[in-house]
Amino acid sequence: RFARGEIWRGNELGFIISNELFWQPETNPKAVLLGASPSQHEVLRPYLEAWFTCDAACAEDVKASARAFMGGLQKMEVQADVKKWVFVENFKRVFPGAQNPIDLD
User: What is the DSSP string of 73-102?
Assistant: First the structure.
């Protein structure tokens, strides 16, 4: 039914439901990728799989990265520090070799 456009899985993630008024009028659907239409999902899925599929070598790299990132902290602010590290790792996978232009602090 989803693929036929009979139903739409909206912008829900657990108890978080984004208000559609947040989005520009021309945005359709008014949602983050969780609310993508079937045709959007079909186009984006291969890219997401390529960027975020992790084999054994990748898993070791992720573990080493986490150890290095967390080992350099004097104290850990769990939510903030984990978000920073995940952002850094995701950026490396999507834009390999590129300099991250975002200041994490």
Answer: -SS--HHHHHHHHHHHHHHHHHSTTPPP-S
